[in-house]
Design brief:
There is one protein chain. It is elongated and about 140 Å long. The protein has ten helices and six strands; from the N terminus they run ββααααββααααββαα. β5 and β6 form a beta hairpin. The protein is α+β, with helices and mostly antiparallel strands. The strands form two sheets. A four-stranded antiparallel sheet has the order 3-4-5-6, with no helix packed on it.
């Protein structure tokens, strides 16, 4: 059957032709889709949900695991690793020799009088250029590696600080829950004694007011814990809701020996990087000095003279004459850069030494305060509260005495928790300065 269209007769395509066309289109679409999938970029950084330990709320999160997650998913750390790889490539390139050159020339267009020449030349580096260049590149790679290690320590210190902060917030929340329970027990006891006619209703009112204040502290502690957990999860791009419970006990850190402080300052990543920068600048001075020596280019080839019918050897030597440019300006700049690096090293050591001594003094002071509260103030406050509670039950003390003892115990616990948190914060600050992150598992001291 034919269908008239525009005055022309067209033939209906056969079923076999339609099937072949459909198969060809399907194959074309499959190729396009496959190529699109092959060329589609994939994410380099893994998502949080890809890690069961990070996404599952049932698996506790330790300090070491938190630091490992942050180091694994840090874009800044990935960029620094790429810089180390680039420095390795630069070091490899610095050790290569110049490539030889091939030259060919033809004189005259007529075959009978034509002269054809072929020559290979090689530039010979003199003055130790290659060795100096290789040493400068080696120092550059060492600087990149030191910068990577310093960044790892910095990230570890930041994660440790957030982890300890979250632990302290969790401890404050636990303390607020315990205080709220004690306040409710005191309120119930006061209500029973008022009902029995043993104390004035004013005592019950005071107990309820104290319980309301504790409830406010409990709500504030809940908000602080949520903020601290959010800040901790942000180090590896996670959400606070997916952050598992923290595993660890907030404790007083160990005392840092003052005698080893200077050694640790000299081994700090910033000092190591500054010292390597001085070595690199010295190597660059040697590079500029070597460039003052001109290189020699030697060539060897053959020339065919058709007019006389002979092959003639070609031997050439070329050397630039250092009449005007002796690389004196670049050498002067390199020497000034070397002095600049030395002054920067001195400034870095002085800054880190001052910061380390201040952080050490703060850590020692906070540690002594936390231990004094733990060993002296807390036992006395607990004993006074127990005695006041027992005496109040026996009718020997008033309810005001119980509230005073309870308030003293709450204040002692809050001071102890604050001192422990400050001692950990000071220890972390000292570790950040010295490039020593506190990534050890949390244990009770």
């Amino acid at each position: 059957m034919t269908y008239p269209f525009g005055g022309r007769q067209t033939r209906r395509p056969s079923t076999l032709t339609v099937q072949r066309t459909a198969l060809a289109l399907a194959a074309l679409v499959s190729c396009v889709v496959a190529r699109a999938e092959m060329t589609q970029p994939h994410s380099v950084l893994p998502t949080v949900a890809s890690n069961p330990a990070a996404a599952s709320p049932s698996v506790p999160l330790t300090l070491a695991r938190a630091v490992a997650l942050a180091l694994e998913r840090s874009p800044e750390l990935a960029a620094t690793r790429a810089e180390v790889a680039a420095a390795q490539g630069a070091e490899e390139q610095a050790g290569l020799m110049p490539n030889p050159e091939f030259a060919a020339s033809i004189e005259d267009t007529q075959r009978r009088t034509r002269t054809t020449a072929v020559q290979v030349s090689q530039r010979l580096e003199l003055g130790g250029k290659r060795q100096a260049r290789l040493m400068a590149a080696h120092q550059g790679r060492a600087i990149a590696q030191a910068r990577l290690e310093g960044l790892q320590a910095k990230i570890g210190a930041e994660v440790s600080a957030s982890f300890w902060e979250a632990l302290a917030a969790q401890a404050r929340l636990d303390q607020a829950n315990a205080l709220s329970q004690l306040a409710r027990q005191a309120t119930d006891a006061a209500a029973k004694r008022v009902a029995a006619g043993k104390v004035s209703p004013v005592d019950e009112t005071r107990a309820r007011l104290a319980a309301s204040g504790v409830d406010l502290e409990l709500a504030q502690a809940q908000v602080e814990l949520q903020v601290a957990r959010t800040r901790l999860a942000a180090h590896w791009g996670a959400m606070e809701a997916l952050l598992p419970p923290l595993e660890g006990v907030l404790h007083v850190p160990e005392e840092v020996a003052t005698a080893s402080l200077e050694e640790r300052i000299e081994a700090a990543p910033e000092v190591v990087e500054a010292r390597l920068e001085v070595a690199r600048r010295q190597a660059l001075v040697d590079v500029e000095r070597s460039r003052a020596m001109p290189d020699i280019t030697v060539g060897l080839g053959v020339q065919r003279n058709n007019e006389i019918g002979r092959n003639q050897p070609l031997i050439g030597v070329s050397i630039p004459l250092p009449m005007f440019d002796r690389n004196q300006g670049n050498l002067q700049e390199a020497l000034a850069r070397e002095d600049q690096a030395r002054y920067a090293l001195q400034a870095t050591v002085s800054r880190l030494r001052a910061g380390a001594h201040v952080a050490l003094a703060q850590a020692q002071s906070a540690r002594k305060q936390a231990l004094m509260i733990e060993r002296e103030l807390l036992p006395k406050a607990q004993s006074a509260y127990d005695a006041a509670t027992n005496g109040f039950a026996l009718g020997k003390f008033t309810f005001l005495d119980v509230l005073d003892a309870q308030r003293s115990l709450f204040q002692a616990r809050a001071q102890h928790l604050k001192a422990v948190a400050e001692s950990q914060r000071a220890a972390i600050d000292l570790g950040r300065i010295l490039g020593m992150a506190r990534t050890a598992p949390v244990t009770t001291q």
